[in-house]
Design a protein that fits this description.
The protein is α/β, with parallel strands linked by helices and 379 residues long. The protein is 37% helix and 10% strand. The chain is globular, with a radius of gyration of 21 Å.
């Protein structure tokens, strides 16, 4: 039987995603807060993800016909009510006992897509069973880390297919973890009862014996890191489209298209891997230009307002993914908190569309972000 998350309420004074974050801090211990909120090293990229959206101006247009407008988009053969999906985040039961189930229920209720993490703390089958009966739900995708054991990886992919997941999202930007100072200072550890349940039964590889002077990373861990050859192998064992998550460089985007990727997600892992990597708002238009419409391009990182969603669409994104704000809603109000986060984003998106003269998201073009001519001096 599928567990139904407990009902909770969102306080009326919470009216922004920033308010959700403040509430979440009061509910999360230092261990969980370091994991969910922290970035790599000096957190330059973490901050840049947010500030990059802020620096893009939206140019309002007036007196345009807007009646009958909508936020619908098409993505991988499906029509979505709006272009907002929930990004894969591991170990959500650290934030709330209902974890990924609450996240999935909220997404289904609001018509948002869900990307479930390989390192989810709830089984992939339970999440699928929870949302499949909802006719208004968004797409259900499974995020994959390639494991050292190809047989185990193939079995995991087969489980996702059998459970009804509609695409695989392969994370490609984390051959190793970033230098996460907040986690190290907090002495991060998984609490009892929380772990990567979908990886149960996988054997941990024996690390190679290192000689004096060898690197534990380059001579050890990175021997298991995926390469482009692994992309071809993954595509050969699944009928699902494979999207690559973590693409920032246009050359990598072109390579992915040439290999038949089903889509790309412009992401820097929420600023958690390589610090000083470019903000996703900066990388997005370069990747969009590189793929030239061959595949859908999605983006995550720093999206906190409906205006950010509209800016992403104007830069050529097919949809956006939201991570930390959904965890903040989950932490203090369970499924209701996640639903409120999604509702705020969609409402703000509609308002931003109306105020920029966009009846539909097809009207969101780069012209929204730059006037046709520079303003006259002195005006």
């Amino acid at each position: 039987m599928t567990h139904t998350p407990a009902r909770q309420q969102v306080a009326p004074e919470i009216v922004t995603l920033a308010d959700h974050e403040q509430q979440a801090r009061q509910h999360l211990d230092d261990n969980a807060w370091a994991y969910f909120s922290g970035g790599a090293a000096d957190e330059i990229t973490l901050r840049a993800n947010r500030s990059a959206w802020d620096t893009l101006p939206l140019w309002p247009r007036v007196l345009r016909p807007l009646a009958g407008g909508h936020t619908r988009v098409s993505l991988l053969g499906r029509t979505l009510a709006h272009p907002i999906l929930l990004a894969p985040i591991a170990f959500q039961r650290m934030a709330h006992p209902d974890g990924e189930l609450a996240m999935a229920y909220a997404a289904a209720a609001l018509g948002a897509g869900v990307v479930l993490s390989t390192q989810a703390s709830v089984s992939l089958e339970s999440v699928a069973q929870a949302v499949h009966p909802d006719p208004g739900r968004g797409p259900l995708w499974f995020q994959l880390y390639l494991q050292h054991d190809r047989g185990f990886t193939q079995a995991l992919v087969q489980r996702a297919e059998a459970a009804g997941y509609e695409a695989l999202v392969l994370t490609v930007d984390a051959p190793s973890s970033g230098v996460r100072d907040r986690e190290r200072r907090a002495g991060f550890r998984l609490p009892p009862g929380v772990g990567p349940v979908n990886l149960a039964g996988m054997q941990t590889p024996t690390p190679p014996a290192l000689r004096v002077g060898q690197s534990a990373l380059f001579d050890g861990l990175l021997h298991q890191a995926p390469t482009w050859d692994d992309i071809a192998w993954l595509q050969s064992i699944t009928r699902l489209p494979v999207l690559l998550k973590g693409v920032l460089h246009p050359a990598d985007a072109r390579q992915a298209v040439s290999m038949g990727a089903g889509g790309l997600i412009v992401s820097n892992h929420g600023g958690r891997t390589l610090d000083t990597a470019p903000a996703t708002a900066t990388a997005l238009p370069r990747v969009v230009q590189a793929v030239a419409g061959a595949v859908p391009v999605l983006v995550d990182g720093g999206i906190r307002r409906g205006t950010d969603v509209l800016k992403a669409m104007a830069l050529g994104a097919s949809a956006v993914l939201v991570g930390r704000p959904a965890v903040w809603g989950l932490a203090h109000a369970g499924a209701a908190g996640v639903a409120h986060v999604l509702r705020l984003l969609r409402d703000e998106l509609e308002i931003a569309m109306a105020l920029t003269g966009c009846a539909t998201l097809a009207d969101a073009t780069p012209a929204l972000l730059a006037a046709d001519t520079p303003p006259s001096q002195g005006l």
